[in-house]
Design brief:
about 160 residues; mainly alpha; 4 helices
């Protein structure tokens, strides 16, 4: 077995560990990127809904915007109920397509829960990524030390001939 073969055989485990860690690093990067993309979407959704709600002004009964005055009004004692309109082409359960579309949209509370969950996941992935990067660095140092030892032996062998 020549010096190069000895080096390859002795550094096999460190090199395979490094490749395994590099694959894990790529997986973590992809997961972090996917979750960050969803976090940005949630932030944009919440921002646009909050901007929309702040720009809408409450209207008086005559349609003019309310300015100043009391923000909350006492209950007037008048109750109005609106019966849902029914179409002939509704589904079997009686829910119209408009109401099913509205119920599919997530509320701000649901978005907040998803945001917290994904943020926690991104932080966990980032910490794991740091540990994996340290392992890659350690594997690289092992290979570097092994290569240095074998290179000095190879240089001595070449000088001796």
């Amino acid at each position: 077995m020549n010096q190069f073969e000895v080096f390859v055989a002795s550094s096999e485990s460190a090199r395979s560990d490094a490749w395994r860690y590099l694959r894990r690093l790529r997986e973590l990067d992809n997961r972090i990127e996917e979750d960050m993309h969803r976090l940005r979407e949630i932030a944009e959704t919440v921002a646009t809904s909050s901007v929309r709600s702040t720009t809408e002004q409450p209207l008086r009964e005559n349609g003019s915007p309310c300015r100043g005055g009391k923000r909350k009004r006492a209950f007037s004692g008048r109750a109005e109920s609106v019966a849902p309109a029914r179409d002939d082409d509704e589904s079997c359960d009686g829910a119209s397509s408009d109401t099913s579309l509205v119920t599919l949209e997530p509320t701000n509370a649901q978005l907040f829960v998803e945001y917290r969950t994904r943020r926690h996941r991104v932080l966990r992935y980032a910490l794991e990524r740091v540990k994996v990067a340290e392992e890659i660095k350690a594997c690289g140092n092992d290979v570097k030390e092994s290569l240095a030892v074998h290179m000095t032996q190879l240089q001595r062998t070449l000088r001796g001939t």
